[in-house]
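Q: Trace token order:
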Amino acid sequence: MSALTANAAPGTGAAHIRSVGTALPGPAIDNATLGQRLRMPGQWEEWVDTFIGTRTRHLAIDLDSGKQAATLADLCETAGRRALERAGLAPEQVDLVVMGTASPDALMPATVNVVADRLRVNGVPTYQLQSGCTGAFQAMHVAQQLLSTGAYRNALVLGGDVTARFYDFDVDFATLPPEHLVHYVLFGDGAGAMVLDAQPVPGSLAMRRLFTQLTGLDRAPGQTVHWFGPSDRDSARTPAEEDYKAIEQSVPVMAAEILDDLLDETGWDRDEIDFLLPPQLSGRMTTKIVDLLALPSATEVSCVRDVGNNGNATPFFQLEQLLAQISPGHRALGVSVESSKWIKAGFAVEMV
């Protein structure tokens, strides 16, 4: 039995994506504006355009003051409210809330509970999963498995990240090594939400396959984000570190493996895939991965060039775009790679 089969929902308990909502903080920030704020030379913008390929991003901080302007709870509340409204679901009708994030607002209370409180959702199970880019897939997977038991009718699934609050705008950016500077270029902030239903709804996306799989045995992390407390806040460690070379080498290969697993388990042929939702590390990396996966009939659904890599919000932005384009009978595959400890995740959906 493959790992994907082992993780698939038992029996016929498929989940159905009923609606999606997203939220972004502040205005779009282009490379020229970001370069001016980082006090970088003019050729830096050309480097970003050529090697990163991300044009704009949204940050939950004010660039002039460096102060945080929006929290993760703020963004998830907006995204969650939009998803509920689009599903025609009242807060008291929500049976379950699951959230995936790598950057909760606090260790306690869990951000998922803050968001549920703001949305007036109460008296239901809530779960918060902490993970990098595959955290949203993990949240979907937990919700799907719970729905498959028959104990719940629907679930509100949340995902998002606010990484800009880890940025230090007082440093001399010209002296930063590339593995630190790249954080300021790659990432954006945002949140997303979806309503998963245990039963099919006209216009919904049926989740035919969904899996997550840890593959990081004996592998060094590709990305590390530290928590600092009173005893180590003066440590010489940087808040975040990234082995971008390792990520560049590993993510395309892992993406191809995920695609092969999804095709094998669904029995779908490569030319039967209508849409591809590829990993969204950067614009340049996405192009490289799409070319490698070589799905002849698939339309690429990407957002990273305009909103940056916003972590666990990304799949929701892609699914929101997909819902605006897909027609009954069309099929789509979503692929995600978590580089901090190398997790593979993917889903196969079909419009009912």
